[in-house]
Design brief:
alpha+beta; 23 strands; 27% helix; five-stranded mixed β-sheet; 449 residues
């Protein structure tokens, strides 16, 4: 990897006597990690994963993964949503955000979903998570990861930040802006980031980041928390962007990040203590990240945004029948119908339009002949003990491998109708049972090849 001379000069000036350590790290293999999804898997059961991992400092459920480990995307635990592959220091922003069950949280630049799924686990199914991605193709990837991780209380949208600020002004009590950036912290793992880098690109990113932050500020209620993060080292995209935001928004203050990892930000301002921000360099155990935490002054208040309600009694009745068939008990909110599909909405989902919503809550299923055909997403959002019928398979079993390949598998002849399929006790899909066979309903686009 050949670094740009301008980048080298900037890092020499920034790091001074530490630059040789940084340069040595940049010629080493990049760090890999996984995070446990506590919505579907117990953090204390990591031994069951049978993976070469060790704890990382950026999250209570984050781990370094052996760089020689391959095929994580084909692992049954990945399919089941028990784990999420994530660069270790990328977990730092949500740790600083510190989501609490019951919060209403906006993840403004959410794709591909690492930070969104980390927030969702911390919410424990309570409150509301709104995950937005402006680029449509990336928003679809985000939605896929939200489904895989079994998140029930999430809205996925494909909207411009200004549109969200207009419709949901003051609605959220925590907002995360993991902004698009020049990606200097990805140089070790993405050659394209090196090729695309230039001082002009970094400056252009800073302009875009400031605009996104201004929109995010509008979405936050008084007393709320805003976290800004990047995966780059540039002053103009990090400390200088923070100082400029505070200049434009005197109703915000900078708070300490209160985390043990990384190091203080650089003192770049006479007006603000920018050392309260947090930086992670490769020498600190991560690829590279920057995090700042703001608080909006004032007392928290409700915005009066109306939440959505069920609109069709018949659809509620069909949903109840499906739940009776497939589950012992599973909490769900209002049911709405869009076309031939029914959705279980989060309880706190606001009743707003024009925001390019790809998914609100969980896709319940498709209406066919006055009944609802259940969806893969519905079963992925269920716990094993909530399912009326469960086929639990070992991670290394031939039957589970066959199921993830899209094949029919043998089951107990007593099983009739829909049944969840689990990797041990973590649901990874479903099928329909009859005469000792389970007809596979695992989506074709997700199957191992």
């Amino acid at each position: 990897m050949e670094l740009h001379s301008e980048f080298i000069a900037e890092m020499r000036a920034m790091l001074k006597e530490e630059y040789p350590d940084f340069a040595a790290c940049m010629h080493q293999s990049h760090l890999r990690g996984i995070r446990i999804n506590t919505l579907k898997f117990r953090a204390e059961d990591t031994g069951l994963l049978n993976l070469p991992i060790r704890k990382c400092p950026f999250s209570d459920v984050g781990y370094y993964l052996d760089s020689n480990e391959t095929g994580i995307g084909n692992s049954p635990w990945h399919h089941a949503g028990a784990i999420y592959s994530q660069e270790p220091s990328a977990m730092s922003a949500v740790t600083v955000l510190d989501p609490q069950p019951g919060d209403k949280i906006l993840d403004m630049c959410a794709a591909p979903g690492g930070k969104t799924t980390q927030i969702a686990a911390a919410l424990e199914g309570k409150g509301l998570l709104w995950s937005n991605e402006y680029i449509r193709k990336r928003a679809q990837i985000l939605l896929s990861n939200v489904e895989r991780m079994g998140i029930r209380n999430c809205v996925v949208s494909n909207a411009h930040p200004d549109a969200i600020a207009q419709k949901l002004k003051g609605f959220f009590n925590r907002v995360l802006v993991d902004a698009p950036c020049s990606g200097e912290g990805m140089f070790r793992r993405d050659e394209r980031a090196v090729e695309e880098w230039s001082p002009e690109h970094s400056a252009a990113c800073a302009v875009r980041q400031s605009a996104i932050l201004d929109s995010a500020a509008e979405c936050l209620c008084d007393g709320g928390i805003l976290v800004y993060s990047t995966c780059t080292f540039s002053f103009c995209e990090n400390e200088d962007t923070v100082a400029a935001f505070l200049d434009r928004h005197p109703d915000f203050i900078l708070e300490p990040c209160r985390v043990p990892f990384g190091r203080d930000g650089f003192d770049r301002s006479e007006k603000y203590d920018l050392t309260l921000t947090r930086r992670v360099f490769p020498m600190d155990g991560g690829e590279g990240h920057f995090v700042a935490r703001f608080k909006k002054l004032g007392d928290s208040h409700n915005t009066g945004v109306v939440c959505m309600k069920s609109k069709h009694t018949d659809d509620e009745k069909r949903a109840a029948e499906l739940f009776t068939d497939c589950f012992h008990a599973i909490p769900y909110g209002p049911v709405i119908r869009i076309g031939e599909n029914c959705f279980i909405l989060p309880e706190l989902m606001p009743d707003v339009g024009g925001l390019g919503i790809l998914r609100g809550g969980v896709l319940l299923g498709e209406i066919k002949k006055k009944r609802i055909e259940p969806s893969h997403a519905l079963f992925m959002a269920a716990q094993a003990d909530e399912c009326s019928a469960l086929v639990s398979l070992q991670p290394d079993s031939a039957d589970l491998a066959a199921f993830l390949h899209g094949e029919e598998i043998s089951v107990d002849e007593s099983l009739k109708g829909y049944a969840a399929v689990a990797c041990r006790n973590t649901v990874t899909g479903f099928g329909k049972c009859s005469y000792g066979r389970l007809k596979n309903r695992y989506p074709k686009g997700l199957r191992n090849v």
